[in-house]
Amino acid sequence: MAGNFFLVGLMGAGKTTVGRALARRAGKTFYDSDHEIEARTGVRVATIFEIEGEERFRDRETSVIGDLVKLNDIVLATGGGAVLRQENRQLLRRHGTVIYLRAPIDDLLARTLHDKNRPLLQTADPRAKLEALFNERDPLYREVADLVIDTSQQNVNQLIIDLEHALADHLNGRAG
Ligand SMILES: Nc1ncnc2c1ncn2[C@@H]1O[C@H](COP(=O)(O)OP(=O)(O)O)[C@@H](O)[C@H]1O
Ligand SMILES: O=C(O)C1=C[C@@H](OP(=O)(O)O)[C@@H](O)[C@H](O)C1
Ligand SMILES: [Mg+2]
């Protein structure tokens, strides 16, 4: 399948995990915007939030996304907040096929509970935070996405197969 694939969705949706597996099967190069930011700065995402704050992290994220979308034949897992900036949404729409990975809050919570590198969820009530983020961002994920894929009740291997079929249908539809 030709072109770039960009994954969006909330924390715990599986963007990093699914993106890496999809890239391997599709013979594309995998990137993750958070990993790229960590490689460029030499520190973890949580440390950037702590020292510089969220807005400066968002500047770094836009810069990394702007560089990566220019590449060809990549799969890019974005961070959950990448869609907040219109500039990022335009970059993603222009340079590839955007896939929104969607899952119920319960699943997102279970998948992120023990990971300390998601600063936005280090609160007394991570469920309430995820619900608020869902309400704010679901319209933005939908706006930017070519495809919406439900990841609940799905193991990653089955998900990749379903995703490949959905992508092939989408790309064929567009070509025809
Ligand atoms: N479909 C899935 N079913 C069960 N667990 C999943 C699924 N997708 C991802 N995970 C697990 O959830 C956690 C968060 O996944 P990750 O890929 O880091 O999400 P994101 O990058 O969207 O925040 C990881 O431990 C991953 O193994
Ligand atoms: O939703 C967000 O605003 C964020 C999601 C994280 O990425 P994942 O969605 O891969 O966890 C990471 O970019 C940062 O902690 C902020
Ligand atoms: Mg990720």
From TrEMBL:
<feature type="binding site">
    <location>
        <position position="118"/>
    </location>
    <ligand>
        <name>ATP</name>
    </ligand>
</feature>
<dbReference type="InterPro" id="IPR031322">
    <property type="entry name" value="Shikimate/glucono_kinase"/>
</dbReference>
<feature type="binding site">
    <location>
        <position position="154"/>
    </location>
    <ligand>
        <name>ATP</name>
    </ligand>
</feature>
<comment type="function">
    <text>Catalyzes the specific phosphorylation of the 3-hydroxyl group of shikimic acid using ATP as a cosubstrate.</text>
</comment>
<dbReference type="InterPro" id="IPR023000">
    <property type="entry name" value="Shikimate_kinase_CS"/>
</dbReference>
<keyword id="KW-0547">Nucleotide-binding</keyword>
<dbReference type="GO" id="GO:0016301">
    <property type="term" value="F:kinase activity"/>
</dbReference>
<comment type="pathway">
    <text>Metabolic intermediate biosynthesis; chorismate biosynthesis; chorismate from D-erythrose 4-phosphate and phosphoenolpyruvate: step 5/7.</text>
</comment>
<keyword id="KW-0028">Amino-acid biosynthesis</keyword>
<comment type="similarity">
    <text>Belongs to the shikimate kinase family.</text>
</comment>
<keyword id="KW-0067">ATP-binding</keyword>
<protein>
    <recommendedName>
        <fullName>Shikimate kinase</fullName>
        <ecNumber>2.7.1.71</ecNumber>
    </recommendedName>
</protein>
<feature type="binding site">
    <location>
        <position position="34"/>
    </location>
    <ligand>
        <name>substrate</name>
    </ligand>
</feature>
<dbReference type="InterPro" id="IPR027417">
    <property type="entry name" value="P-loop_NTPase"/>
</dbReference>
<feature type="binding site">
    <location>
        <position position="16"/>
    </location>
    <ligand>
        <name>Mg(2+)</name>
    </ligand>
</feature>
<feature type="binding site">
    <location>
        <position position="58"/>
    </location>
    <ligand>
        <name>substrate</name>
    </ligand>
</feature>
<keyword id="KW-0057">Aromatic amino acid biosynthesis</keyword>
<dbReference type="Pfam" id="PF01202">
    <property type="entry name" value="SKI"/>
</dbReference>
<keyword id="KW-0460">Magnesium</keyword>
<keyword id="KW-0418">Kinase</keyword>
<feature type="binding site">
    <location>
        <begin position="12"/>
        <end position="17"/>
    </location>
    <ligand>
        <name>ATP</name>
    </ligand>
</feature>
<keyword id="KW-0808">Transferase</keyword>
<keyword id="KW-0479">Metal-binding</keyword>
<feature type="binding site">
    <location>
        <position position="80"/>
    </location>
    <ligand>
        <name>substrate</name>
    </ligand>
</feature>
<dbReference type="InterPro" id="IPR000623">
    <property type="entry name" value="Shikimate_kinase/TSH1"/>
</dbReference>
<comment type="subunit">
    <text>Monomer.</text>
</comment>
<feature type="binding site">
    <location>
        <position position="137"/>
    </location>
    <ligand>
        <name>substrate</name>
    </ligand>
</feature>
<keyword id="KW-0963">Cytoplasm</keyword>
